[in-house]
Amino acid sequence: MIFSVGNAFIHFATLGVLLIILFNVRAKYTAIGRTEMLFFFYLFIGLTVSSLVVDCGVTPPSSSSYAYFVAVQMGLAGSCCISLLYNGLLCFQFWEDGSRRSMWILRLVSIGWFIVNFFIAIFTFKNWGTGLSTTNTTGLFVVGYVLNAFILFVYVVSQVALVLFALDSYWPLGAICLGVFFFVAGQVLMYVFSEKICEGATHYIDGVFFATVCNTFTVMMIYKFWDMITTDDLEFSVATVENGVRSFGLEDEKRNSTFFS
């Protein structure tokens, strides 16, 4: 049974937005980091589904399975963070994107960080560890919040450096700033003003609702930033066939990118 209808609605809306983003990313066949970015959005879909289960009361807090669903949610959140950082570093072209090696590294790193976040969360919730319990949540806070926040911080710094030193246009900085603003606003609304929002809205919505909205806008800005800094090879676009673009020379046939132009 779903209790928080407002939260459920915004989660379903987020899934719709993610499906549109996936379609657009898949359409950029030769864009740098396309496969890795698709993997990130698949992870975020999984995070959204798990959040739908946890936030909307599909599994009530009193049930024995609730702790496991929350642990999965935290694990997927960590995987999204590390996957996003990987995509950010990939933009510097230190290694070939889309290769089997690149994808396996991304999968292993994401799975490894998921396992770390999941087990620290479940050990804390179930009081299974001597240093991890519901009365000692320091480990959970450090891994789930401090380290993941640091990972996101490194991602933002790397992308700002990419725009400043490798691109010809500073417009992508706008997407970065908006993404950071929405993310920070969502965290503040959820952890600082959630109770006041809940009381003011007579318990129909709370800070989770607005945090989910802000997170959705954050992901949209992540996609927009990636879309702005990558271009697609016109040779593979439908518009090329319809408009009869001239034949490309040897240099033009190479996969086009705004990186290090």
Automatic annotation (TrEMBL):
Presence of the UniProt keyword Hydrolase in the record: no
Compartment(s) where it occurs, according to its Swiss-Prot or TrEMBL record: Endoplasmic reticulum membrane
Pfam family, one: Chs7
Annotated GO biological process: cell wall organization; protein folding; protein transport
CC terms in the record's Gene Ontology section: endoplasmic reticulum membrane
Residue intervals passing through the bilayer: 6-25, 37-54, 66-92, 104-125, 145-166, 173-192, 204-223
Sample GO molecular function, one term: unfolded protein binding
Taxonomic superkingdom: Eukaryota
Membrane topology: Multi-pass membrane protein
Keywords: Cell wall biogenesis/degradation, Endoplasmic reticulum, Membrane, Protein transport, Transmembrane, Transmembrane helix, Transport
Record bears the keyword S-adenosyl-L-methionine: no
Subunit structure: Interacts with CHS3.
Function recorded in the entry: Chaperone required for the export of the chitin synthase CHS3 from the endoplasmic reticulum.
Homology family: Belongs to the CHS7 family.
Protein name (Swiss-Prot/TrEMBL): Chitin synthase export chaperone
Organism of this sequence: Candida tenuis (strain ATCC 10573 / BCRC 21748 / CBS 615 / JCM 9827 / NBRC 10315 / NRRL Y-1498 / VKM Y-70) (Yeast)
